Amino acid sequence: MQLSRLLIVALVFLVLVVTFCSAQTDDNSTTTSGGRKGRKEQKQQQQQQGVDGDDDNDGNDDSDNSRGRRRGGRRRNKAVKEDINVSWKQSVGDGRVVTLSLQAPANKEIIVVESKDKDLGDLGFVASTTTYDYTTDSALVAINPKGRGPCYLTGESLTYQQIMDNAVTLGASVAPHSVENATLVDGTGAALSRDKEDEIFSTNPEIKRACGRGNIVMLEESGDPPKFSGETKEVKVIIYDAELTIVVPAGRKG
Ligand SMILES: *[C@@H]1O[C@H](CO)[C@@H](O)[C@H](O)[C@H]1NC(C)=O
Ligand SMILES: *[C@@H]1O[C@H](CO)[C@@H](O)[C@H](O)[C@H]1NC(C)=O
Ligand SMILES: *[C@@H]1O[C@H](CO)[C@@H](O)[C@H](O)[C@H]1NC(C)=O
């Protein structure tokens, strides 16, 4: 009795895995046609493809939609099976171009984007490493500008799959990628307490790896009027799909 029930559970699981895998394979076709698209345009494109791109023969017209729902829900992301390392050119206004690189280690739901071009300083940017952690239900992003300042945490609306699909296109392209105009974010908040830090490190060990034991500051949308009344300065970094201008207290290191 118990054994047959187990068998049924195993079978159902297998069917689910197979269904999901074949859905994933189809996803591939959505990636290569994209080209250089801004984030919004890309989203629209994916939504369109979600509507009319369903030609897998599972007899279920709704499959792309349900896949979308699962993506946003509790389902885990699928990590790549082999390391994927790509680099691409990104324009940063005035026709200047810098190189960005991305590493997705095999079997880890992590994407690391490095912005370390030697011309960054000239262009007013700080070199940085940004870690996209998809190991938990909601993606957590750790932005680590070079220097002794804090690590900045924020969320991410793109899924692991969306970034990886586009990264392959980026890596294969010669023309520079351009991103939205610089986004202003508020990094003036106080560093997290050790307890809060430990809480995040226990659920997201990769964030600990990315940030080390330095201070961690949660990024907020920049408000008007600003929450912080003291003198501020700007730390500009380039992350996967944006130029980010982080407003921080003038006295802060890094
Ligand atoms: C998926 O994309 C990769 C990389 O572009 C390619 O090598 C592979 O053949 C594609 N697979 C399918 C099923 O189209
Ligand atoms: C990808 O990059 C990482 C970090 O630089 C490196 O350790 C790894 O060997 C690279 N993998 C491949 C397949 O090139
Ligand atoms: C970026 O900023 C420039 C100058 O302010 C503006 O003309 C342009 O429309 C902006 N582009 C986007 C995509 O917002």
From TrEMBL:
Keywords: Signal. This is Uncharacterized protein. Residues 52-63 have a biased composition (Acidic residues). It comes from Plakobranchus ocellatus. Residues 1-23 form the signal peptide. It comes from the Eukaryota. Residues 68-78 have a biased composition (Basic residues). Residues 26-79 are annotated as: Disordered.
